Amino acid sequence: MQSPLPSLRLVSSVDGPTLPRIEFLQAIWSHLSMKTPVPSATIRLLILALLILVLLSACQISQGPTLTAPEALTRAQAGELTLVDIRTPKEWRQTGVAEGAVRIDMTSKTFLDDLLGAVEGNKDAPIAIICRTGNRTTYTQRALMERGFSNVYNVKEGMAGSGAGPGWLRRGLPVQRCETC
C-alpha cells in the first residue's frame, strides 16, 4: 500500500542539521486538503514529526555562536577576540593549552572575576571559550550570556575533538606546554 503522503525532500540548513521544513508543511497541507479520511496512524505520525521539528528548532535557537578551532586561532592571533581555555590545570598539563589562550579554570570560585579581568571588564568583548570536547563550553556559553556577556563564541570541537570537528590537537594547531599549571 502506498502512503497517502507525498515523499518528503530534506532541506539543508546553513545554521543547523538537515531538517524537513517547507516540504514537510506542504505535505501536511496537501494531505489535510484531501477529501479521503485520514488514518489515525498517519495523524499520530504527523503530530510526532511536527513535535520533533519544533523541538529541534528550539534547540537550535538556544545555541550561541560557534567557531571552529582554526577560526578561533586565526581570530585570536589577529587580536579580534580573547581565547579562553576553561579546562582544569590537570587537563592543561596533560595536553597543553591552545596557543594564545588565557587559562581560566571554570571550576574556580573566581572564574567570572578572572574572565572579566581578561577582557578588562567589557562584557561586550568577543570571547571564544574552549574545553576538551565542547560540552562544558556549551553550558558555560549559555551561563555567561545569561550573566550579560554578549559576544561569547563556543569552540565546540574542543581540544580533543567531538562531533563538531576533529579538535585543536588532531588538527595540529599550535599548543603551549603548561607543565607548571
Defining key terms:
181 residues; alpha/beta; Oxidized Rhodanese, domain 1; two-stranded antiparallel sheet; 6 strands; disordered N terminus
Write a brief structural summary.
This protein is of the alpha/beta class and 181 residues long. The chain has helices at 22-32, 40-62, 69-77, 89-95, 111-118, 135-146, 167-170, and strands at residues 82-85, 97-98, 102-103, 127-130, 152-154, 175-176. The strands form two sheets. A four-stranded parallel beta sheet has the order 3-1-4-5, with helices on both faces. A two-stranded antiparallel ribbon has the order 2-6.
Report the helical percentage. 40-55%
> What fold name goes in the CATH topology slot of the largest domain?
Oxidized Rhodanese, domain 1
Overall pLDDT score: 81
Number of helices: 7
Query: What's the order of the H and E elements?
Result: HHHEHEEHEHEHE
Overall structural class, as computed from helix and strand content, comes to alpha/beta
- As laid out across the biggest beta sheet, the strand order is 3-1-4-5
Count of separate structural domains: 2
Poorly predicted ranges: 1-21, 57-62
- Would you count the extended β strands for me? 6
Q: State the name of the first-level CATH class of the largest domain.
A: Alpha Beta
CATH superfamily of the largest domain: Rhodanese-like domain
Give a structural overview.
The radius of gyration is 22 Å and the shape is elongated. The protein folds into two domains: 1-62; 69-176, Oxidized Rhodanese, domain 1 (3-Layer(aba) Sandwich). It contains seven helices and six strands; from the N terminus they run H-H-H-E-H-E-E-H-E-H-E-H-E. Mean pLDDT is 81; it is low at 1-21 and 57-62. 41% of the residues lie in helices and 9% in strands. It starts with 21 loop residues before the first helix and ends in a 5-residue tail after the last strand. It has helices at residues 22-32, 40-62, 69-77, 89-95, 111-118, 135-146, 167-170, and strands at residues 82-85, 97-98, 102-103, 127-130, 152-154, 175-176. By secondary structure, it is α/β, with parallel strands linked by helices. Helix 6 links the parallel strand 4 and strand 5. Strands 3-1-4-5 form a four-stranded parallel β-sheet, sandwiched between helices. It has a two-stranded antiparallel ribbon with strand order 2-6.
